[in-house]
Design a protein that fits this description.
With about 450 residues, the chain is mainly alpha-helical. It is built from 23 helices and no strands. The longest helix has 30 residues, at about 20-50.
């Protein structure tokens, strides 16, 4: 408890210097590559669907196409351990899977580009599924690369760089929104596909991380496969014990506000009559400053004061910024560009801040030996529940209106703040994500 009350703190100079290393540039690129596929499904495609006259309830349920992100644990052991013929020997385990996954996102984006949602929604959904499945696979390999490439003390900073890149992808997808206004949606999605191709080229210049050594054994192939799936999940119970319940509840519901609100943000802009170029310009302009501020502020505070404290602050910020969308819906119109910019920027600050702390917390709960599988389990745990509930966001917006909808999504953050404080005050070291940090420090030469 004494360590909780007085954690070791770094100077501001040490904190800022950590961002000047090449690994942080790599995390910036990988965060961008991770964020772009999801945002094209999550936000920009929703805008396209609404413009095409698709009902809000259908748009909400359409978001379930990203269920592939929830099912990551089913094939994470494959990504974690199975080599890709020819590519793995040339590029390494992590980079080879990144390249293959990025190529899949390019196929999905190109397929969506040549569809017409108004007349062929099923084909659009198929392209979105390919995009999201490939994006989920990319996330698995990136998470493993991040965890293996840096010590635990660096994970908060690496998460900040990742979130900055991820949020940069959101901003760039806003530029894609402007492209759709200036040209058409086909050109917009093809530009995004070409951008993912550029990310694949940059991956080739990254360093393959060290992989934890696994002792060879004489077990049968079937036994080894079973162990590769069961062992990573069993470790959570061994480390957390009864605290697995509050920890997994926190993981499952901490991002619920963002998930449910985000599905209806683009339909709100469309229904209020905002020009797509204006929305995209705000996301790609002031939003960039907000993203940098939120991501790095979250990383700096988490690095200096602790991850859980930062998550409490993040929950409060999430409540305020979600409520701002209710205010926009109640008082704004298509001429309220300044208010729109303020709401979008505030949301970007909150998402960057919260995302940095949350990623660092999830990373602290994993074992490097099973990094990809365990991180995929944790990230899929919150995606499973949040995306299922988010699928009903269109029905909620249709039933209670935009104002009531955003008030409800804001309220989701308050119980999470209380749960984090409970874990901080009563939880074990493992539940607070510090046990592995101590073990790593003890083992360091």
């Amino acid at each position: 408890m004494a360590e909780l009350m007085a954690p070791a703190r770094k100077t501001w100079g040490q904190t800022l210097a950590a961002y000047g290393r090449p690994i942080m540039i790599a995390m910036l690129i990988l965060g961008f590559a991770s964020g772009l596929p999801l945002m094209m499904v999550f936000s920009k495609l929703s805008f396209w669907l609404r413009d095409a006259g698709i009902e809000r309830s259908t748009i909400g349920f359409f978001y379930w196409v990203t269920i592939s992100y929830t099912l990551k644990p089913l094939w994470a052991p494959v990504v974690d351990r199975m080599p890709i013929p020819f590519l793995t020997s040339a590029l390494g385990k992590r980079r080879s899977w990144m390249i293959v996954a990025i190529l899949g996102t390019m196929v999905g984006l190109a397929m969506i580009a040549f569809t017409d949602p108004a007349n062929g929604l099923v084909v659009t959904a198929l392209g979105a599924f390919i995009l999201s499945y490939s994006g989920a696979t990319l996330d698995i390999s990136i998470d493993a690369w991040r965890i293996e490439s840096g010590p635990r003390d660096d994970q908060a900073n690496m998460a900040a760089a990742y979130v900055l890149g991820y949020r940069g992808a959101i901003m760039f997808s806003g530029f894609g929104l402007a492209i759709s206004e200036w040209t058409n949606w086909t050109v917009s999605f093809l530009v995004m596909a070409a951008t993912m191709g550029a990310c694949a080229i940059l991956v080739l210049f990254m360093k393959e991380p060290y992989h934890a050594y696994r002792e060879p054994d004489g077990k049968s192939f079937g036994r080894r496969v079973a162990d590769s799936v069961i062992e990573p999940f069993k470790q959570f119970w061994d480390r957390l014990g009864n605290w697995i319940v509050p920890v997994f509840l926190l993981v499952a519901f901490y991002r619920l506000s963002d998930f449910t609100m985000g599905v209806m943000a683009s339909p709100l802009y469309s229904d209020m009559g905002f020009d797509r170029a204006i929305v995209g310009g705000i996301q790609s302009g002031p939003g960039i400053i907000a993203t940098i501020s939120g991501g790095f502020l979250g990383g700096l505070i988490a690095y200096r004061f602790g991850v859980l404290r930062t998550m409490v602050v993040g929950a409060v910020i999430t409540f305020a910024t979600n409520a701002a969308f209710a205010y926009l819906a109640a008082t704004g119109d298509s001429d309220s560009v300044g208010l729109l910019a303020a709401v979008i920027s505030a949301d970007n600050i909150a998402a960057g801040f919260v995302g940095t702390a949350f990623i660092a917390y999830l990373s602290s709960l994993t074992d490097p030996l099973n990094a990809a599988t365990q991180y995929a389990l944790l990230s899929s745990l919150y995606a499973l529940i949040c995306k299922f509930i988010a699928g009903f966001s269109g029905v909620m917006a249709e039933t209670m209106g935009y104002v009531g909808f955003f008030v409800v999504t804001a309220s989701y953050a308050l119980p999470m703040a209380a749960l984090i404080i409970f874990i901080m005050l009563r939880g074990t070291d493992a539940a607070r994500g510090v046990r592995d940090l101590e073990k790593t420090a003890d083992a360091a030469p």
